[in-house]
Amino acid sequence: MAETSAIVSHPWALSVDEVLAHLEVTPYRGLDESQVVARRLKYGPNRLAEAKAKSILHIAVNQFKSLIVGLLAVAAFVSIAFGEWLDAGAIGGVILINAAIGFFMELKAVRSMEALRRMERITARVRRGGRVLEISAADLVCGDVVLVEGGDIVSADMRLIKASKLQADESVLTGESVPVTKSVEPLSEDAVLGDRRNMLFKGTALTRGSGEAVVTAVGMNTELGHISALVAQAEESVTPLEKRLDQLGRKLVWVTFVIITIVAAAGILRDKEVFLMIETAIALAVAAIPEGLPIVATLALARGMIRMARRNALLNELAAVETLGGIGVICTDKTGTLTENRMTVIAMILADGRIEIEGTARGTPARFTKSGQPFDPNSDSALMQAMEVAVLCNNASLGHEAEQWHGSGDPLEVSLLIAGRKAGIDSDALMRQWPEIREEAFDSDAKRMATYNEKDGLIRVSIKGAIEAVLPCCTRIATEAGDKPLDDPTQTVWEQQHAALAKEGYRMLALAAKKVTSVDAPAYEDLTFLGLVVMADPPREDVKQAVAECRNAGIRVVMITGDHPETARTIAKAVGIADDASPEVILGKDLVHADEMTDEDRRRYRHASIFARVSPRQKLDLIDVHQKAGSAVAMTGDGVNDAPALKKADIGIAMGLRGTQVAREAADMVLKDDAFATIVVAVEQGRIIFDNIRKFVLYLLSCNLSEVMIVFAASLIDRPLPILPLQILFLNLVTDVFPALALGVGKGSPGIMDRPPRPADEPVLPSRAWYAITGCGLLITISVMVAFEVALVSFGMSDQEAVTISFLTLAFAQLWNIFNMRAADSNVVRNEVTENPNVWAALGFCIVLLIAAVYVPGLSTVLGLKPPHPHGWTMILAASLLTLVVGQAVKTLSAAGKKRGQGAR
């Protein structure tokens, strides 16, 4: 038999005979071994492409890619070149400490491909050469005839050729929580993935029934393979914090270069010694670079990561902690994220009215209400009759564990058993009382099912199914007053009620019953109509409040789902994503590809809140729309179909309980409790951390700028350096780091979630912050230079003694400068800095270190310091307090002026 192409285009649109003919296979015999070998050689094994995992070495190397770390490395090499070994060793120690912290906190890599491959370690039963064989799923080829049944994991994409009561759970691909009933009839060529009912897809699970199918795609050509390719191709965005720190580092490079050039030129013009100019240049380079910044940033983010873990949010990367705080849009999947991901009976509609059923399978207490009033379900005979029919006409089973109901079998049937349990019906006890003696199994064509149950010679026939399959078989309708005739107008009313509920996205089953004396009596004749069971995948109980909190914080929540549009609309309205009575739902088939979008398309998509029937690739396009508009985007999800979008988003958020391994490995954050509300907590922590980062960067740079100004000023006058390179390193690594770290772990200011998210392109330090840095740096410089000049001229101190005075004045002025980091509108005495116990601990520790630097032999020698006299300490404290006094006065006056301006408006 000649070998032809084994890839079938649109197999769902072809008849069974056309697909078999294209694949050159007969279902009763299957492929011959020669065909199998040829096709495997041509198309490869049924495996997904392997992704190379990040090695430990790769993770370690990543820790040195920061531009600021690069600046430190250059400074270290320059120090070595000129024999400044102590300076070089200290800088090298900074680099290694920062790398070690980052390495151990980020010892993890994205394992998306490995997780996808773990899904396929299964076997398949195939018919080859007329024999049924069990083979590894990896050995399947296009054209293999596969025998499938309930409980199987589908091992390739297949076109069904036989199907008997076959259903598949495709939620990991489509996002739909309801199992899909399968058939063999051809469909329209443009049928979307969720509507291809004659296909089975790799990675999905069969929940019931049996059948035969022919393989139409293997490996990377399957729908799961397409998604794995998207995961690999999705660009993993550089986090906003990384971008901001990189921009800051570049500015520091230019500032350092310009200052060194000016100082060198000035020194040459003044005929200063070359070695002195080299020493000065090294001092300037060391002073300009905030050596403590990488360490403090890493530790602050690590603290945030630990804090979030305690609140059920696990983050995979340090930088993701800060990124959360800038989120402006949350694109969320529906199933399992906003909803329970389990069908639940929410109402029973009977002839006498609608009865609401509250409570879920998660142990929430049941509550039955009618016309808004609670009542005992056992007091309504019509309700209890309908409930018993739903339990008897059922093949599922129910168990109870950890205060939750767990069922096995069709999820719809499990939901009926749980509803019965809420009404006090024990399914096992009822089945013992009414043993089943016959069953008319559910048929996807007939869309109904019947069971016969006998007790004391009386036989009950219980029927459930689609309303169009059950209602025409009914001649009576049950009411509280007894059975009444079911006429055509009444049937029409029920059909209209069903259509209205279906339009709202609900799923319904019709119930009917009768009593007979013979097991051979026909099932679907002369029935009594009992009513409708209304089912939904209900919203999670905590979602509505969380969505409201997002809105209050200026964060847009957008639903992007593969589910039906009406279901999406109903859930969006229920949780508060959409306020309109009939909000717009944009369908995937109507979405324009990213390369073809007009400005109007992008504007429309940015303002829409509900997208339904969306494919994994389209999710990437929608995320891109918001990112290009300047918003940081978070994407939530739990299925395989969500993985590419989770990776593409600025923050990918996976569900820890319900989420697939693929989704968890592709995400930046995993919610241990699957609670959407946890995202709000994480965003709040992210905002707090960014504010803290801004505070300590401002603190570090104002301290470093003062050091640059001091060295620069000394180079322009005929004076020795007021502070030496190793002393600068000591301050930057010790007395700067601990106060900065204390700022980095602050609890934040109240009301942080009452303001809109910051712009994605806003730098760590806006222009107003640079004014503050310059002002604080200038104040510190003036106090140090005045103290140095007084020590040299007025008190006639030696160079070493005067340098000690200037060193300690600089150190204490920098310590007091931490109190200038408070918010301008906060109280002078009680604010987020003074009420931070870590600040006081850091100050105490740093003061001890400064005293040790002066009085401990060895250390004082290395640093070139000499213990000052009492009047020297008086001068140090008086001069260093200048920064604090003036800084607080400026903040107070600024806040008062701002209030007056607001009052005038």
Structural description of this entry:
With 905 residues, the protein is α+β, with helices and mostly antiparallel strands. Helix 5 (85-105) packs parallel to helix 25 and helix 9 runs parallel beside helix 24. The protein has four domains: 11-50 and 114-233, Calcium-transporting ATPase, cytoplasmic transduction domain A; 241-302 and 691-904, Calcium-transporting ATPase, transmembrane domain; 319-339 and 540-681, Rossmann fold (3-Layer(aba) Sandwich), CATH 3.40.50.1000; 344-536, 3-Layer(aba) Sandwich (Calcium-transporting ATPase, cytoplasmic domain N), CATH 3.40.1110.10. The protein is 47% helix and 18% strand. Strand 24 (586-587), helix 20 and strand 25 form a beta-alpha-beta unit. It contains 31 helices and 28 strands. The strands form four sheets. Strands 10, 11, 12, 13, 16, 17, 18, 19, 20, 21 and 22 form an eleven-stranded mixed sheet that branches.
Topology record:
Layout: H1 16-23, H2 33-43, H3 56-62, H4 67-81, H5 85-105, H6 112-118, E1 123-128, E2 131-136, E3 145-149, E4 157-169, H7 171-174, E5 180-181, E6 199-200, E7 205-217, H8 223-233, H9 240-269, H10 274-288, H11 292-310, E8 313-315, H12 319-324, E9 327-332, E10 344-350, E11 353-358, E12 367-370, E13 373-374, H13 381-392, E14 397-401, E15 404-408, H14 411-422, H15 427-433, E16 436-443, E17 448-455, E18 458-465, H16 467-470, E19 474-477, E20 484-485, H17 488-503, E21 507-516, E22 527-536, H18 543-552, E23 556-560, H19 565-575, E24 586-587, H20 599-607, E25 610-612, H21 616-628, E26 632-637, H22 643-648, E27 651-655, H23 661-666, E28 669-671, H24 676-716, H25 725-735, H26 737-744, H27 767-794, H28 799-816, H29 837-855, H30 859-863, H31 870-904
Parallel strand pairs: 9-23, 9-26, 19-22, 23-25, 24-25, 26-27, 27-28
Antiparallel strand pairs: 1-2, 1-3, 3-7, 4-5, 4-6, 4-7, 8-28, 10-11, 10-22, 11-12, 12-13, 14-15, 16-17, 17-18, 18-21, 19-20, 21-22
Helix pairs in contact: 4-5, 5-11, 5-25, 9-10, 9-24, 10-24, 10-25, 11-24, 11-26, 13-14, 18-24, 24-26, 24-27, 26-29, 27-28, 27-31, 28-29, 28-31
